[in-house]
Amino acid sequence: MGFEVAGVVVEVGSSVTQVKVGDSVVALVSSGGYAEFATAQSQVAIPIPPRVSFAEATTIPIQGMTAYTLLRYLVEPLAHESLLVQAAAGSVGLYLVQIAKLLGIKEVIALASSDEKLELVKELGADVVVNYSNPDWVGKVKQATHGKGVDVVLQMSSGQIGEESFKLAAPGGKIVLFGAKNYHDTISTEQVRQLMWQNQTLAGFAYPALRPEQVAESLPSLLELIQEKKLKIYADQSFALSQAPQAFEALLSRRTIGKVVLIP
User: Fold this and answer.
1) Bridge partner list, 45
2) Cα distance from N-terminal residue to C-terminal residue, the chain
3) Fewer C-beta neighbours within 10 Å, C or N terminus of the chain?
C-alpha cells in the first residue's frame, strides 16, 4: 500500500537528470509507499519547497493538486458565487477552502463534523461553517444562502450527506462529483429531474484524468502559493510505520484533521 511518499533521494538511474542524490522530494509511486525505501519515476518527483516538512509535502501531489486543478479547470467559480465544501477539514477540503478564498470567491460554506474542525476552517477563511452532524445542518446552509441554494456544490461525500448536498444546489448551479466515495454511486431519477427542471450542471472530476499540460501548468503555481505561505498545510497526524492499523482506525473515527502520515 501507499501511493504518496516524501524523503531524500538515495539513488538515481543512469538517465535521470531532473533530480540528484541528496534532493528532498515528494513523489507518487505505483505502490509500496509504506516502506523505508520506495522507487518513483523521476518525472513525478517534486522538489519540496523550503521550510516544508516531509509530512506536509505528502499533501501536495494528490490533495493539493486535486483542489487546485478542480477549481482552476472545472469549477472556475465566479467571485459573486457561493461554494459548498464537504469534509472541509480533510486534506483536500483544507486546500479547497483556502484556494477558493484566494480566488476571491464571495462565500465559502464549509461542512465539518466537530467544533474543533469548524473553528479551524473558519480561521482559514470559510465564511460560513456548518456541523453536518447536527440534524438541522441543511437548514443552516439554506439560511446562509437566503433560501436560494448554493451556486457550486463540491460533492465528495456519498450517502445521506451527499444526497442532501445535491439538493442544496441553486437553480442554474453546478454540482461536481469527485473522490472515491462517489465512484460506485448512481444518479437517481429524482436527481435527474432536479438537474433538468432547475437548469443545473452535473460534472465529474478525477485528477489523474487531467491532461499532462494542465498538471505542468498548475504545479508551479501551487508550489509558489505554498512557498509564499499563502496556503497553510496540515499534516499533524503522524504514526510510526508499524502503527499503520492505528492510523486507519483514526481515519475511520473521523478524529483526524488534514493529512495522516506514516513515518518509517
Assistant:
1) 27
2) 14
3) N
The partner residues of 177 in beta bridges, in order of sequence, read: 155, 204
Question: 255: Cβ–Cβ under 8 A, 6 or more apart, which residues?
Answer: none
d(CA 232, CA 95): 8
User: Can you give the pTM of this predicted structure?
Assistant: 0.92
Cβ–Cβ < 8 Å for 13, 39: no
| Cα separation, 83 vs 258, whole angstroms | 20
* 129-170 residue pLDDT tens: 999 999 999 999 999 999 999 999 999 877 888 899 999 999
What tens digit of pLDDT does each residue of 165-211 get? Answer: 999 999 999 999 998 766 667 788 999 999 999 999 999 999 888 88
| Three-state secondary structure readout of the chain | CCCEEEEECCCCCCCCCCCCCCCEEEEECCCCCCCCCCCCCHHHEEECCCCCCHHHHCCHHHHHHHHHHHHHHHHCCCCCCEEEECCCCEHHHHHHHHHHHHCCCCEEEEEECCHHHHHHHHHCCCCEEEECCCCCHHHHHHHHCCCCCEEEEEECCCHHHHHHHHHCEEEEEEEEEECHHHCCCCCCHHHHHHHHHCCCEEEEECHHHCCHHHHHHHHHHHHHHHHCCCCCCCCCEEEEHHHHHHHHHHHHCCCCCECEEEEC
